[in-house]
Amino acid sequence: MTTADSNEIPTPIPEGAAVGAAAPAGPRGGALARMPVRPFRPGPASIAVAALLCLLFGLLYVAMQIRTVFSDQLKQEYAGLVLEAAGRVDSAREQLAVWQRMANAPANHDASFVPAYDAARAELARRFASLAALVNASPSPAPPIPSMSPTQAAPEAVATVLGSVSAYWRAQRDAASADVRLRVAHVARTLIALAALLFCMLITALGMYAKRNRQLAGQSHEFEHASLHDPLTGLSNRRKLLAALDSAAKNARTSVAEQRLAVLYIDLDGFKQVNDSFGHRTGDEFLAAVSARFRASVRKGDLVARIGGDEFAVLVRTFAGDDELAEIGRRLMACVVDTDEQMGIGGVRASVGIASYPDDVDDHRRLVAAADAAMYRIKRTGKNGFAFAARTGREATL
What we know:
Distance between the termini: 69 Å
Low-confidence stretches: 1-25, 392-398
CATH architecture of the largest domain: 2-Layer Sandwich
CATH superfamily of the largest domain: Reverse transcriptase/Diguanylate cyclase domain
């Protein structure tokens, strides 16, 4: 055992920590511990399903309430029929009571008294039997009415039965009417609540769809930006350069005044040694720094693009003459020198080829290739300079 080992003081490990550390030891436990918990975010589809479920349950409740309302209306109408029958029985009872009072006065008797009295008693019995049949056939439970023969249908007995029947069925009619009003109010409130709920869910769904569309539009914009720009430097790529060149050429053809276009093609001389000597990270930093200097050195209307690797291009939409293009080329070469000196690389320079339309080429689509050819002519003759396309005697070295 060494001295360092003997001087070390063992640190006790809490049991909870040990147990907690040992919990995810297994492969399944580790997977569960690393599994992220994704919060539930309702989307337009879930909002629509919730709205449909609420509508379904609400309509089911409304249907049940309407069914009960119809049932209560039937009860109310049946109670009205019973009360009407009871009224007819009471009318027959009063008529029989009149005939009974006449029977107590023998002076009023004649040959027609007895048949009329018997007919009144029979009519009361018939109407009472009809009332009893109607009450006993009630669809809802009700106190039954005993049947009476014509001899038993006395006005006093009938009056007692009619009092209880009228009171019971009047209470049933009032209760059914109150229940109908209550359930109609419930149906109205439920329909209002469903309409408000569906309206809120519709607004929520529309808002979520609008948000989703904005997100998709933002993602589409990001994808379009990524497809037209270089991810390392943020400059336009070759695709955007060619599209901008086509647009500028179209504007130049439709312009009243004569308008010329130019492309400066830049290649970094000695950049391969930067990656080999300092690493690709330093090379990427150099490209990003020189790209920023390129962008700052040109005019606002000009376009700087990274063609690929260590090659760049500048689209000049308007210029006065070759001297202005030569000055732009010198500024671009100076950007490379300044970046090289700032990062302490040493030896990175630039070769620039310049081509203009319609001076050097008759088709704007050949402008990039002409500038590229001029740039390679400089590289073959010593690098670190600029040259115009298909012309001699105008080469310069910074």
